[in-house]
Design a protein that fits this description.
six-stranded antiparallel β-sheet
């Protein structure tokens, strides 16, 4: 028997076994470049719970606070605040897995007044799940 086929078969069985034993809320419907507000709705519908950030811990002048207040995104963790504007959001499921969602985009511009009822929109670029057992399973599609 070809050793490459044997090794590949073994790796497939090990990989299947690892993911088959992992319980987590669904990530079905999440894709790169989708609006975060849409991804957020899907995640909440799939059983992920937003990890609520404490508003007092966020700098008053920070755009994170603006997104927290204006969009109601209380699961926002932090934003880079430079160039591409990466932001991170955190969720947890019933199995105690943690989901980290990373977005890209600019919402508010320095020295530009915010329009009434203006909402921020960011695009999902990456997500990863930290399993309850301490393993990390990165998912990028």
């Amino acid at each position: 028997m070809n050793p490459n086929v044997l090794i590949t078969s073994f790796l497939l069985v090990v990989s299947f076994h690892t993911f088959a034993d992992c319980k987590q809320a669904s990530l079905d419907g999440i894709r790169q470049k989708m609006p975060y507000s849409e991804a957020r709705s899907i995640l909440l519908d799939n059983g992920w719970q937003a990890l609520l950030n404490n508003i007092q811990s966020i700098d008053v002048s920070n755009r994170v606070r603006m997104m927290y207040n204006d969009n109601g995104w209380h699961e926002i963790d932090d934003c880079s605040g430079v160039e591409l504007g990466f932001c991170s959001f955190q969720y947890r499921d019933a199995y105690e897995n943690q989901l980290y969602v990373t977005t890209i985009g600019e919402c508010y511009y320095v020295n530009t007044p915010k329009l009434e009822d203006e909402k921020c929109e960011l695009d999902v670029i990456f997500w990863s799940v930290k399993e309850n057992l301490g393993k990390t399973n990165e998912n990028e599609q």
